[in-house]
Amino acid sequence: MLSTFWSGFLRFVEKNSKENPVIYSLLKQLRPIEMSEKHIVLSCDNPGFVFFLQKKIHFVEGYLFDHTKKRLRIEIVVKAQNKRQEPPLLRFEPTIEDVFKKAGLNGTFTFDNFAVSSSNQVAYAAAQAVSDSIGKAYNPLVLYGGVGVGKTHLAQAIAQKVLAKKPNKKVLFSPGDLFTNELIEGIREKNTPKFRRKYRQLNLLIVDDVQFIAGKNTVQEEFFHTFNAVISNGGQIVLTSDKPPHEIRRLEDRLRSRFAGGLTVDIQSPDFELRSAILLIKAREKNIDIDLETAKIIAEQVADSRALEGTLLSLYAKTLSNGGRINLEAVEDFFMNVVEQKNKRVSPHDIIKTICTYYDVRQSQLKSPNRAENIALPRQIAMYLLRKELGLKYDQIATLLKRKDHTTVLHGFEKIKSLLARNDIFKKEVDRIVNTL
Is the pLDDT of residue 369 over 90? Predict the structure, then answer.
């Protein structure tokens, strides 16, 4: 019987689509109504759903071939389940895109297009575990790391996987500043009960950049009670931050304690291999023609994963007149121009000012005789960057920083060079300063 065949096929898909759970959740909503040697007709009662499924049809046909060893063409028709129902075109049921949008999600942030390497594999595994069993695996899950390491991508991937399996779940992705602004608006409008209904009855609450609530007493008070309400109701909390909870300044101790009660995972800056993979994924998403060797050259030059996409699009725009293929020659020309422009824009004063801001020291201290570690290290970093980024001579740097002679600068340069080679944490600090420039 057709229904027996379909049930067996669904079990086959469920077993073989662990990395693409959306397909199984979609197929469960279809009913087989006709089948021949060459095609199968499936029906559902939602036109919007059919439109979405058409984009996935090649996946389904692939599973059918694996299951039956036959090339079956799929046809989907809209058909009401019984005559007493309203005509399908008059009924509205949200598509999966509507569900994602309502939850505040970006449809491109999925597990399928998240590149995994040693720098983020623990976070990836934890996110998968949470999405498979919200409220039970790790609660809360705190993902922290620098800019562009994939915190937001993983957090949203959790939400999308949850909603793909159960679209009726109450899920919300909220940036920390949005949580703050909505609370302020609720207080201003004397309507905080509405705010609380929105946040406290969720099955999954994701707060991105939670460090933004620190130092705001009323916001932290409200978030504390929201946190407790969601957890008490069996819901899941996922947080992202630029620092681990114990390093977030002006965060209340009771919140710090709650955050530490789950799993906190550090996502490291992407290594060379991961950056290459990210670049290739972005190129595939945007139908940009680029080969592996060219992608590796770009990944060597660009350390920030967010900047990778911008670099890719800039390169593509420059090659449109030649068919849009990004080759080695185009990459070399591009980075040569970048270096020239950077040297025109960045001045010695910019480097010194940026370092002072980063390490919270005054420029007068940097140029003083003070040899305290908190002054000497930023001073030596300035020596290193003035030499490496701008190509200044040692005696020129000595004059700028009011050192006696060039040997002091040479010593500082070599010390920082050595530290960069053997201390990954220190290297990340210097990379952040360079990226700021």
Answer: no
